[in-house]
Amino acid sequence: MPPTNNVTRMLAAKKVAFVAHELPAEKLGGEEAAAYLGVPAEQMFKTMVAVRTSGGKAVLALVPAPAQLSLKALGRALDAKLQLASLAQAEQLTGLQTGGISPLALIGKGFDTVLDQSALDFDTIYLSGGQRGLNISMSPQDLVALTRAKVVGIRG
């Protein structure tokens, strides 16, 4: 049975439809996680952390696992100059381990969230559940509603 955590408890409390999926506890890349769960890699979304070069809110950018993030497109969407956070910086900013960074675990923590528009091509998308070894599948519309994500094309 997949683990429960603050994310799964919050989703259940808000009566949001989701499925929790257990993954191996070691850090898996998005494509590895998709292969493990037997889902198309384009349906698995990885969370990348970007920082504004002028300071201010950090950004959680979700793109399909096989895609690269376009910092230019992300910057245009937020009218900001951005740089990708290092793994250590991402962990420090979010308080989560890489491989387990999730916008669902960071609701109300001051992050801007941007979801690549390709997510809307699917009824269900997969993303981290806020810890290594836990993945969540849910509708992209529910993710947008919960995180107040901006939906734009941010793939490179």
The whole-number mean of residue pLDDT values reads 94
Helical coverage, percent range: 25-40%
- CATH class (first level) name: Alpha Beta
Any idea what the CATH superfamily is called? YbaK/aminoacyl-tRNA synthetase-associated domain
- Helix/strand/pairing category: alpha/beta
Sequence of strands across the biggest β-sheet: 4-2-3-5-8
Shape-level CATH architecture: Alpha-Beta Complex
- Give a count of the beta strands, DSSP E runs of length 2 or more: 8
Topology:
Layout (H helix, E strand, L loop, with lengths): L5 H8 L4 E5 L7 H8 L7 E8 L6 E6 L6 H8 L3 E3 L2 H8 L17 E5 L8 E4 L5 E5 L1 H8 L2 E3 L4
Parallel strand pairs: 3-5, 5-8
Antiparallel strand pairs: 1-7, 2-3, 2-4, 6-7
Can you describe what's shown?
There is one protein chain. The strands form two sheets. This protein has a five-stranded mixed β-sheet with strand order 4-2-3-5-8, with helices on one face. A three-stranded antiparallel β-sheet has the order 1-7-6, with helices on both faces. It has five helices and eight strands, in the order αβαββαβαβββαβ. Strand 6 (125-128) and strand 7 (134-138) form a beta hairpin. The model has no long low-confidence stretch (mean pLDDT 94). The chain is globular. The termini are far apart. It is an alpha/beta fold. 39% of the residues are buried. The chain has one domain (6-152): YbaK/aminoacyl-tRNA synthetase-associated domain (YbaK protein, Alpha-Beta Complex).
